[in-house]
Write a structure and sequence with these properties.
Two copies of one chain form a homodimer.
Chain A (H helix, E strand, L loop, with lengths): L3 H4 L5 E4 L6 E2 L6 E2 L3 H10 L3 E5 L7 H10 L9 E2 L1 H12 L3 E4 L18 E4 L8 H13 L5 E4 L4 E4 L2 E4 L1 H12 L4 E3 L4 H11 L6 E2 L3 H5 L2 H4 L8 H5 L10
Parallel strand pairs in A: 1-4, 1-12, 4-5, 6-7, 7-8, 8-11
Antiparallel strand pairs in A: 2-3, 9-10
Subcellular location (chains A, B): Cytoplasm; Nucleus
InterPro entries (chains A, B): HAD-like_sf, HAD-SF_hydro_IIA, HAD_sf, LHPP/HDHD2
Organism (chains A, B): Galemys pyrenaicus
């Protein structure tokens, strides 16, 4: 394996996934993945720009950061790129008033958004909120719209909790897409716009960044953003979450 | 419009859909679609062979027939081709032991099937049973199987109840297909085998049958079974359910 300094030649920043890479969530709040707390600390000491880039959509950024800090991570809210704030930008830009099919933990992110007389549906990982009644309400609303707009916070198939694998928002988005005969607009990974906004936040070009972590690869970041480097950086850093997926 | 006798030249049988064609379901049991009770009676008087071919998967055949008889239809259990009994044949033939993600109303159809140590998932229109917990249990089981088998009773996008449009099994099947990276096997419309079994039951060839009704067209029966005639037979019969879909 090439030396640390050699592998990092030309690298100015790192995008880090959170769930499944830094920690595994669970009913107890979750547990850090072995080595990840130290890896983040080492990255920050190295002078690389670090951006946490997550599709987490059950918790607000504030709650997520508080949890990670309790688990020992050096992280602040301003370092996190998450789909809910990005969605709020899209909603405002396009004059969309959402019906929210989301987890209660993330509802506060939409406090400042007009939700009267909805003209679109925003779907996120609602967990137990994916009841038949809630899905059907979103479906009926979409079917009533002349121009149905479905915005999905990510398109993950599933994620891992300490209790096992859990269906993610992508599965439920597929259900609504099929029932309504429409295609959702994804905000979050693997949307190239999402990664670009994270790069802009740290002022680093795509070819200067590394993306260690499983979700990034499975979500297709290599194709989504031109130039992000692949390699075994994650292993070198001591990040061992989803080892079959390191980029 | 051609005369009744002319349009029926060479026709020996009729496959009739039930939900959305003969009646609209609902919390109150449902209501007959105007003209449909008389249309069934007229068909039977005409000497044509009649087979009721439904994807109904919230009720057992017995409960469905009892309901339809209460609504005034001349129908018996032996005249109905439904996906649950067809699924039981498939399960027995292939030695499959299902985990059932189905409505309680249809569970009795599987009473004689070994459900211990499941090696497949059978999904039907579970209605309120499509909770996150139930979906996740089916998902986890499929992910644990070396050769995951998902059998779906139909692939309808939605159906109409008196209270409005309702998400159908097809949407939830898509969710599991996407999450697991598999393709479900459909028993029920639009599976050609399903229509063929209905034709066998009345001893009529595909080119000798007419399929008036909306669901048949939307489910692609025209392509699924070679030769079923299309036309305005439904209108002539006085069947007015889903008029934009008559075949």
């Amino acid at each position: 394996m090439a030396a640390w300094s050699e592998r990092l030649a030309g690298v100015r920043g790192v995008l880090l996934d959170i769930s499944g890479v830094l920690y595994d969530g669970g009913a107890d709040g979750g547990t850090p993945i072995a080595g990840s707390v130290e890896a983040v600390a080492r990255l920050k000491r190295s002078g690389l720009k670090v951006r946490f880039c997550t599709n987490e959509s059950q918790k607000s950024r504030r709650d997520l950061v508080q949890l990670l800090r309790r688990l020992g991570f050096d992280i602040s809210e301003g370092e996190v790129t998450a789909p809910a704030p990005a969605t709020c930008l899209v909603l405002r830009e396009r004059g969309l008033r959402p019906h929210l099919l989301v987890h209660d933990g993330i509802r506060s992110e939409f406090d400042q958004i007009d939700k009267s007389n909805p003209n679109c549906v925003v779907i996120a990982d609602a967990g137990e909120g994916f009841s038949y009644q809630n899905m059907n309400r979103a479906f009926q609303l979409l079917m009533q719209l002349d121009n149905p707009v479905l915005i999905s916070l990510g398109k993950g198939r599933y994620y891992k909790e300490t209790s096992g694998l859990m269906l993610d928002v992508g599965a439920y988005t597929k259900a609504l897409e099929y029932a309504c005969g429409i295609e959702a607009q994804v905000v979050g990974k693997p949307s190239p716009e999402f990664f670009k906004s994270a790069l802009q936040d740290i002022g680093v070009a795509a070819h200067q960044v590394r993306v260690p972590g499983g979700a990034a690869l499975s979500a297709g970041v290599g194709g989504g953003v031109e130039g992000p480097g692949r390699g075994s950086l994650g292993l070198e850093l001591g990040l061992r979450g989803r080892p079959d997926c390191w980029v």
